[in-house]
Amino acid sequence: MNNIRIHTLQRKIKLYYKKNSRLLPWRIKLGKNQDPYKTLISEIMLQQTRVKAVLDYYKVFLIKFPDIKSLALASEKEVLIAWSGLGYYRRAFNLHRAAKIIFKEYNGIIPSEKIVLRTLPGIGEYTSSAIASFAFGKEELVVDTNVERFIKRIFNMEDNSSKSYNLKELGEILFPKKNRGDFAQAIMDFSNDYCTKLRPKCHNCIISRYCDYKSLDTSQKIKVKKNKKYCVSYFIYDLKGFFFIRRRPISEILGGMYEIPSTLWKSSKKFSNINLITLDKNYNPIFLNKLIKHDFSHFTLFSKVIVIKKEKLITNNIKGLWVNKSTIKRFPISNLTKKVIDYSFEEISSLKKFL
Ligand code: SF4
Fold first, then answer.
1. Domains defined for the chain, CATH in brackets
2. Computed from CA positions of residues 51, 57, 60, 64, in that sequence, does the dihedral angle turn out positive or negative?
């Protein structure tokens, strides 16, 4: 693509952004630098999560932790509670660790250089470029999945394994030399409206003349099937509305979050026992009918819930604690755990006379 076409494309994208940029709480006027703390929080939250899902969490998080100091001095549990429901909890741990380092080693000032930002926990290539660019005006190439897809389409490199390409080189051709942060955000907004992952709106795209994308026949597209995993969740409860939870091992998925004790998540459909509890031998716990389904990025988990009355427990060697619907709010739990709790209570109340 020659320079004139590139410049026209850049101009059209910039104009589009000027007229249609999304109003997001961490953004500021075009051409101005964003607030570094707001940028840090929003960029970490946006890792693997859509803007729409982030908005409410972002607002509440900012009220609870308005600056680096409040975040650095908070307990891990407080941070996880504020993050509960947003998923990918490793991000919350890392953000908390990063805030502590910034507070202690950088006098509470977020570093502006990409190379320094990259040394902080949970901040990789994209996030460091985004913070340096959006908050400090550094002319970095900010390439998230939307920008990457856009670049590949413009140069017709998407789904085209026969052509070798260097994303960075293509990005350097496409991005202007100045105000790269605004340009990256412009592409993100444009991709959200037009150059979407599925079914891009090429027929009424304002830059279709400058784009080499050749839409593939749908039969050529490969459907990625997610793996399935299974587990059993042990909902142990008493008649006063208390139920048993435990903290998941830190090395596992959702590590550090609290859950209804579950067996290992395995690909085998054969449900195993938790082995840490023994029940009255005359008692038959009830397996609830429905499997709780929960999507993770690389697999789908199906949890079979078994409800057990506390008084039928002979031994319980699971390390954990008793909570009720009100005190559970003091603990960080995932959406998966919320689903298991809600479903268990719903079923217990309808099955009461049989349990
Ligand atoms: S023509 Fe289609 S693929 Fe190319 S930028 Fe526009 S929407 Fe994206």
1. 3-219 (1.10.340.30), 227-354 (3.90.79.10)
2. negative
